[in-house]
Amino acid sequence: MLPIERPQKIVCIGLNYSDHAEEQGVDPPERPLLFAKWPNTLIGPGEPIVIPPISERVDYEAELGVVIGSRASRVSIENALEAVAGYVCANDVSARDLQFSDGQWVRGKSLDTFCPVGPALVPASDVPDPQALGIRAILNGQVMQESTTANMVFGVAEIVAFVSQAITLEPGDLILTGTPAGVGVFRDPPVLLQPGDEITIEIDGLGALTNPVTRG
């Protein structure tokens, strides 16, 4: 079951861990790099990630999800966290072949079932510092990503403030804050999701989000 209300929008931040930028051989961005996923991507714990016929290179991305609790327009960094309702584990599943061939990211990131979130929404009051959380992706029992939100290029407060200067954030909106190094496509050899796999996203204090992988 999806642990959050279906958001009006899902705002995502690209290249927001320095080690993830490094594994791609690019510099971290000078300001948050925004893209979107659509709400059709959302699934809850235990629901299958479905690899569609149009993609052969589907990847995982462990991310901290931020759920907005109050309307935020042009808020300051100092006040930005007041707009956050809570946090959730998220998996920014990505069809790399579509993402790279399109030259932009929306289609490859927005296929049905490509945004698992869970296992529960943890209130912001229970997360004293969102920049001090261990984050991991575990594929079939093997740790593939292991980092900390302290390694974000832009922290949660900076992201919320930056987005709100241009886009009014409404209660229920979901922000995905980027992924650390260790994604499958940049491994040698690449490790992409396959039918029968099980992928888990763990974040300290937020629990573990596990989803099977199937082909549709």
Radius of gyration: 16 Å
The strand count comes to 14
Q: Helix proportion of residues, in percent?
A: 10-25%
Along the chain, the helix and strand elements come as EHEEEEEHEEHHEEEHEEE
Which band does the percent of strand residues land in? 25-35%
End-to-end distance: 20 Å
* Mean of all residue-level pLDDT scores: 96
Query: Tell me about the biggest sheet?
Result: 7 strands, mixed
Q: Uncertain spans, ≥5 residues at pLDDT below 50?
A: none
Q: Give me the side-by-side strand order of the main sheet.
A: 2-1-12-6-7-9-3
Shape: globular
Classification by helices and strands: alpha+beta
Tally of individual helices: 5
Structure report:
The chain has about 220 residues and is of the alpha+beta class. The chain has 5 helices and 14 strands. It has helices at about 20-25, 75-80, 95-100, 105-110, 155-165; strands at about 10-15, 35, 40-45, 50, 60, 60-70, 85-90, 95, 115-125, 135-140, 140-150, 175, 200-205, 205-215. It has a 7-stranded mixed beta sheet with strand order 2-1-12-6-7-9-3. A hairpin with a 2-residue loop joins β10 (about 135-140) and β11.
Task: Produce a short descriptive summary.
The protein has 216 residues and is of the alpha+beta class. Helices cover 15% and strands 34% of the residues. It has a 7-stranded mixed sheet with strand order 2-1-12-6-7-9-3. A 5-stranded mixed sheet has the order 4-14-13-10-11, with no helix packed on it. Strands 5-8 form a two-stranded antiparallel ribbon.
